Amino acid sequence: MSRDSAPSRIRCGVDIGGTFTDIVFLDGRDNVHTCKVSSTPDDYSCAIVAGITTLLRRIGEQPAAIELVVHATTVATNTILEHKGARTALLTTQGFRDVLEMRRLRIPVMYDLQYEKPRPLAPRRFVFEVPERLGPRGEVWQPLDEAAVRGIATKLRQTGIQAVAICFLHAYMNGAHEQRVAEILRAELDAGVFITASSDILPEIREYERASTAVVNAYVGPIVHHYLSRLESALAAAGVAAPLSIMHSGGGVMSALAAMVRPAAIVESGPAAGVIAAARVARQAGLANAISFDMGGTTAKAAIIEGGEPAKTTEYEVGAGINLSSRLVKGGGYPIKLPFIDVSEIGAGGGSLIKVDANGVPKVGPESAGAAPGPVCYGLGGEQPTLTDALLVLGYLNPGYLVGGALAIDRDRAAEALQRHVAVPLGKPLLEAAHGVYQIAAATMTRAVKAVTTYRGRDPRDFVLIAFGGNGPVVAVEIARALQIARVLVPLAPGVFSALGLLLSDPEHEFVQTVFGRVGSLEASDIAAAYARLEQEARQALVAEGLDPAAVAVARAADMRYSGQAYEIAVPVPSGAIDLAAMARRFGDEHERTYGHRSDSDSVDLVSIRALARATRGERPTPRQTQSGEPREPASRLVYFGDGLGARETTVLPRVALAGRVLEGPLIIEEYDATCVVPPGATARLDGDGNIDISVGGSA
Description:
Elements: E1 10-16, E2 20-26, E3 32-38, H1 44-59, E4 66-72, H2 75-81, E5 88-93, H3 99-102, E6 127-130, E7 133-134, E8 140-142, H4 146-158, E9 163-167, H5 176-188, E10 194-197, H6 198-201, H7 207-237, E11 244-247, E12 253-255, H8 256-261, H9 269-284, E13 289-295, E14 300-306, E15 309-310, E16 312-313, E17 316-318, E18 334-336, E19 340-341, E20 344-346, E21 352-356, E22 362-368, H10 387-394, E23 401-402, E24 407-408, H11 411-426, H12 430-452, E25 464-468, H13 472-482, E26 487-490, H14 497-502, E27 508-518, H15 524-543, E28 552-562, E29 569-573, H16 580-595, E30 604-615, E31 635-640, E32 647-653, E33 663-664, E34 667-670, E35 675-678, E36 683-686, E37 692-695
Parallel strand pairs: 1-4, 4-11, 5-6, 5-9, 9-10, 13-25, 25-26, 32-34
Antiparallel strand pairs: 1-2, 2-3, 7-8, 11-12, 13-14, 14-15, 14-20, 16-19, 17-18, 21-22, 23-24, 26-37, 27-30, 28-29, 28-30, 31-32, 33-36, 34-35, 36-37
Helix pairs in contact: 1-7, 2-7, 4-5, 10-11, 10-12, 11-12, 12-13
């Protein structure tokens, strides 16, 4: 059967943002259909069902045609940021009650004597010591006191505890005590109490990070379980019987059931989806190195892609405010030591509020107008101007409507707010003030790109910038010029690109086990046996989700460091026989690339081993077109490009008008879900995959 005659079968991607909920359908012919609806923070499932229903009606299909729903959600993240999680208790080894208060010595600010560490998600009054003790090799030094555990269970019932985390010393080597405590608590407590054992979610060395990860998992567990259960019910009521999968922070997808058990793994699911899609674009375009840049309504996010694969980390803190890359700013949030796509995030998006402080300094973000009331131009009650209002006044955005006409906007209202709140306090003409705001926002977002490149020993000039999100293509060339990046790609469906990325991601699970020792003293056979056990566990996790065992592939990695160092670097480990010396050499290569130096005299430690199981869903789809609205003739409008360039009459055209042509800026390329600005001095064309390929050029 040809692709054009393929039966109706729809894969649905759903990504919730601070302003819009994005719905993407990928049909049996690899056509992309998109829809944006306003998010409904009181019940996100309402916007999801409304968007799916609208898009089904638009393309003339029934809910039964949907065979898969993949969702990226911020529910877990928001639960932590807003401190609205479950009433959570922590059970720990006797004598170690203060593990959450002591944390690490690192703080995100220096010389601030008033700095206060974030309060623990499990308050000290809900931390209970259990008489038991394991040695560093997992040997039992003190047996578990089961009577004491039952006494603690009585106290938990009396205090109305909704979730329990269990983290005992050295449980990463022997989880028997934790598992027995979990068994007792399940028998003694109500069935609805969410229980997490650290040996289940993170059997890895470092007590504080392990305890924090277990507590985060427990804290968000009941909320995530309720949300996903409610969403499944809402989809079923709308006639969508397809299974629900969730994007996890490492860039793969997992079943909704698995996400309910390990909700800490979905804390950064939305940003991961966009990076996965950007990596796909990079591979198709034959790019060795790329930077994904995602700018929406609230934040801008950047990540690097090398060799077609996004960079990953296991060092992440949630609730720390703006994340300027996982390895740079620490101590301000709650650590989660699970696999994450390594994303740098800045509080600057279309909804970012513009303010002029008491010293006359304009600032953009990090506060956002969100979905309600939104930018002033939306006419929904917003009074403080936002970056979107500035872009509208400059002429970058269509002064009549957004998202294909679904959202009417008011330029005059935006101009009046900018004049009153920004231009007058600064003593500047309106357009100069608006362009200054644009430059400040672009400079702020440039920091996010630097955090994953120059701060990591990478030269951004060696990369291509892949820009997406509702506002990413508006500022992409400005950022590229600041970093001397020569080329920008804007992929298909840029405004809903993260939702599309959900449909390009494979189911995967990563498992880790601490196996500590100096490389020179370890036996290759022992490491091979440990990998075999871990690989089997990873495979079984995917098979348990109904995936074909023949479609599952497992990749190995190892966390290694020089002896005496505090933290590790993950390096790939080839399949087949274990060669410890080769592993040490690969570690040295990566250490030199990351930090600029290596040591051939210091011994190397193996700390943990990893197994990543990934299953492919048959032939990978190749999206070949996107909804672009009604065909129209190119138009023009007056656009302001800053001092020295001034306001210019600028051609406004759809993406398809670039086919077979190379056009010089200034240009505005308008689509249903995003706007791309090609300023003077830059040129644009369509590549073979339909991406807008921009040669940045000079500053014109």
